[in-house]
Structure formats: structure tokens, C-alpha cells
Design brief:
about 120 residues, mainly beta, seven-stranded mixed β-sheet, 11 strands
């Protein structure tokens, strides 16, 4: 089993920056992919960025050039560096991990990001 805990959310002004963290515990060496997703009020959850095998990254068009996903090894947290934040980046950000031979997935509890002046 894998457990995830996110942190780092908060209130930030437009144009500001935040860094989200996602700490994994349990069978961390069975994780082969991780990602960040977000859900804005009244909208469906959407992909923000993913990282596979520690190096292959993928981003939503809306965050390319502004957000960076990273994870420096299985023992270290997953990060999402968010720069040049916009009001439309507001939402609950969730961390997800895919792990194990049975291709299981687990979600964190989410952390709220609010971009507002």
C-alpha cells in the first residue's frame, strides 16, 4: 500500500509562486508514476502534470512554461513548482501515484490553492 500527503497550498496573489509537496509512504519503491491534478469549484478534476520513471514529464497546455513537476528519487517528495499563478489556477490540488504490478492508484487528500488579489 502507498499513502500520500500533500502540503504547500495557500493564498497567493496573481503572478506569485507556490510549491506543493506530496510525501509518499508505504511501498514507495513500487511507485512508477506520479502526478498532480486539480479541481476548481464546479468543475471536474483535471490533469496538471505527471512524471513517469522519475524523468518523463507531461503537462496540461494551460500550465506549460509556468509549472514544473519533479521528484528526485523514490525516497523524496513529489513537487509542483507553480510560477506566474493566475486566478484560473485556483482549486484543490491532488497528488496521485500509480504503483504495483496490479497497476493500483492512490490519491492524496488534496491541498487548496487560491490565487486572488
Amino acid at each position: 500500500q502507498v499513502q500520500l500527503v500533500e502540503s504547500g497550498g495557500g493564498l497567493v496573489q496573481p503572478g506569485g509562486s507556490l510549491r506543493l509537496s506530496c510525501a509518499a509512504s508505504g511501498s514507495i519503491f513500487s511507485i512508477y508514476a506520479m502526478g498532480w491534478y486539480r479541481q476548481a469549484p464546479g468543475k471536474q478534476r483535471e490533469l496538471v502534470a505527471t512524471i513517469t520513471s522519475g524523468t518523463i514529464t507531461n503537462y496540461a497546455d494551460s500550465v506549460k512554461g509556468r509549472f514544473t513537476i519533479s521528484r528526485d528519487g523514490a525516497k523524496n517528495p513529489l513537487y509542483l513548482q507553480m510560477n506566474s499563478l493566475k486566478p484560473e489556477d485556483t482549486g484543490v490540488y491532488y497528488c496521485k501515484a500509480d504503483y504495483g504490478r496490479a497497476n493500483l492508484e492512490v490519491w492524496g487528500q488534496g491541498t487548496l490553492v487560491t490565487v486572488s488579489s
